[in-house]
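Fold this sequence, please.
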Amino acid sequence: MKLTALSDAAEFKVFQTPDYRTYSAEFRRTADLLAKMAEAKNLDGCALNYVQLTMNCVNCHKYVRSTRLARLD
């Protein structure tokens, strides 16, 4: 899936911390599951995984922002 490949790109590897790696792994896992649900034409599974993927993005962005701000102090 393109989303999974995109998350492996160098520009997406912002930090080399355990938390960031966890967010990245969860993103890839959820993106892969979303693709499987779409292939199976499972609309409920797609909807659930889309929401989970979006929340993963939001939570990771919050983490990156707070980590960058902490490094500026």
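Residues 43-72 form the longest helix (30 residues). The radius of gyration is 14 Å.
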